[in-house]
Design goal:
single chain, mainly alpha, 5 helices, 0% strand
């Protein structure tokens, strides 16, 4: 077996390093392309939408928040209407915030209570005491 002299060994190492550099450059180029594609605005929106829609309980939380906001708004309009008095307007805003906060935090229990009441109101009850 022939021993490689130092020049041949150095040339082999240089060749290996060049191959390693080319491979790393190709990997860097591929990563740059992926990053570039993921930072496009349409892809950012698509990815965010997918993450939001795949989140568990998001639909329930969103529905509870929307119900809370609607309830707060309605309670302000019912109790204070379109007032020009700044104190009443401030109290209406505080009431709206409070009702919205309470309803959105307790939306699941309010929903179950409402379903129970609707079931009781619209269920058919047998008529008692009538002989056929």
């Amino acid at each position: 077996m022939k021993h490689l002299n130092q020049t041949d060994e150095l040339n082999n190492r240089i060749t290996l390093l060049k191959q390693k550099q080319e491979l790393q450059f190709d990997l860097l180029r591929a990563q740059f392309y992926l990053t570039y594609e993921s930072l496009k605005p349409i892809n950012l929106i698509k990815n965010t939408w997918k993450e939001v829609m795949s989140a568990p309980n998001l639909k329930e939380d969103l529905l509870g928040s929307l119900i809370g906001l609607g309830t707060g708004f309605l309670s302000k309009k019912i109790l204070f209407g379109a007032t020009h008095n700044p104190i009443k307007a401030l109290l209406g805003t505080v009431l709206q915030f409070g009702v919205s906060n309470i309803v959105s935090k307790n939306s699941s229990s309010i929903k179950s209570f409402g379903e129970n009441m609707l079931h009781r109101l619209f269920s058919k009850k047998p008529i008692q005491g009538v002989n056929n």
